[in-house]
Amino acid sequence: MGTEPRYLGQYQLLERIASGGMGEVWKAMDTHLQRIVAIKFLLSNWRHSAGFVARFQGEARLIASLRHPNIINIHNFAIEEKPGEPPLFYMVMDYVEGQTLAQYLAVTSKLGRFPPHEDILYLFSALAQAIDYAHNRGMIHRDIKPANILLDQRDTRQRALGVPIITDFGIARRQGISGGTVVGSVVGTPLYVAPEQALGSYDEKRSDLYSLGIILYEMLTGIPPFRGDSMMNVLMQHVNQAPTPPELLNEAISEATSAVILKSIAKKPEDRFGSASEMVIALAESFNLPAPEPLIQNLRTMPAHAAISLSYVPLTPVDRPLIAETPPATLATPAIDRQSRGASPVAHTDEIHALPTLAHMAPALIQAASSPTIAVPSRPARSFLSHPRWLTAIAGLIIVLLIVGIAARLWPPSPSSAPPIPHGSVQFSYSLGSSHYDQLQITMQNVPDPPGGKVYYAWIDAPANESYIPHWRLEARQKQIRSGILSDNKVTNLVTPHALFLITLEDASNSHILVPAIDMSSRLYYAQLSPSGGATFEIKACPQNVNSSPCI
């Protein structure tokens, strides 16, 4: 927005208050009504696509039709067009004084200072009412996350934290309507995205409930359940990995509350709660607090298919599957404040930054793991280590591991363990005046023609690329790829630590691909990049063993 005028019609632009891959938000003065408003500008390349104007107008009307105290009010939307310039799309909405829920969590839960149960119930009750209201009108948000929840400080009569208000319905999707949305195939943010969204399905309202469950997990433990050093790593965890039971991260969490959280983030939508109201009523019961009356009324007035009985939610101590995995070493759980919650402290290290917005996902063939089964025990559970059969099993396991370790050292490597044969190279270079590798050239041979309806894409997926993955469409001719000099004006340094160069197969009909295919069969070639590795890197074929593939 740096080149835009300080006035936009009747609005005087005062200051930019937020920016991201999709656009910018400005604080502005409505000179006609003499009130402060917020204006969101859409800065995406989708502005140039055919049919975008009609989709923007249609979706903006739907969003503006939502009238709820916990959903941001949209006052106006417009398109400004100037000769020789791309159209400027913007929405005018309420300006909310206050921090985001992400900022609130950063100084509370992430530091081990967990909010009292009464505040948590107040917050999630308001969010549940807003989400169910939108769902009952056919709208799915698809990007519920702490950064999209404002805590309005204009009214702190009920709770000091403020009134929660859900924002950014700009990537919402109307249920049952096909043909794309304003933002094409963007479906959420990886830390909070549901497994079915990661696999390319966006029309499930319980995806919003999954995201709400992830926020609940984070608020009560201080960390989201799935973290990693790349977008794809986090997505794979959402699809395949069971979360660590919350009570193992914060001993102040009861098993009943843990059961509610785990049900909220079940892998399969049908295993989650039927509505946000149902989820928060179960949460209130697990806190031993009265269920908020508005949520009870919501359940009574919901359609029969949505008002599912709560009788299957276990609110007594439950057995837990053993989770062998631990969080990454650099992402340990936060310290727990003994004074505020009476829980034992856990070491705290650097927190992860929010990962970029997730967009196109190719059809995936990943085998989705079911959520841990939660069974009500018939008698109090005891430690598995106290049972002699477990001690025997563990002793046997140790012996097996010793034998396997010895065999691995003595057994000669098989021919299949030989390093993969290079298929070509990717060479990086500086453009004129640059001090970083901001250009690349791809040279490959023995590359088969892509199947019908598919096309090759090159990607550089790196932790440094937080909001955008640079990518290029490639042409294969006579079993060769010779790309010529490629660059991307959104990224000034293409070779950063832990960067992964990928070549994938993508749908040729999708011109708005922003994330590489998650399906391992579509990830064909790779090169591991390093700033200390020189300017040229060998391109090798991706192994199809998902457990050891460097292409993940």
Automatic annotation (TrEMBL):
Q: Which InterPro entries match?
A: Kinase-like_dom_sf, Prot_kinase_dom, Ser/Thr_kinase_AS
Record keywords, A-Z:
ATP-binding, Kinase, Membrane, Nucleotide-binding, Transferase, Transmembrane, Transmembrane helix
Q: Which CDD domains match?
A: STKc_PknB_like (cd14014)
Tell me the ranges covered by the Protein kinase domain, including all copies.
11-296
- Membrane-spanning parts: 390-411
A GO molecular function annotation here is: protein serine/threonine kinase activity
Q: Which SMART domains match?
A: S_TKc
Q: What is its EC number?
A: 2.7.11.1
Q: Which residues form a coiled coil?
A: none
Record's protein name: non-specific serine/threonine protein kinase
What is the organism field in this record?
Dictyobacter aurantiacus
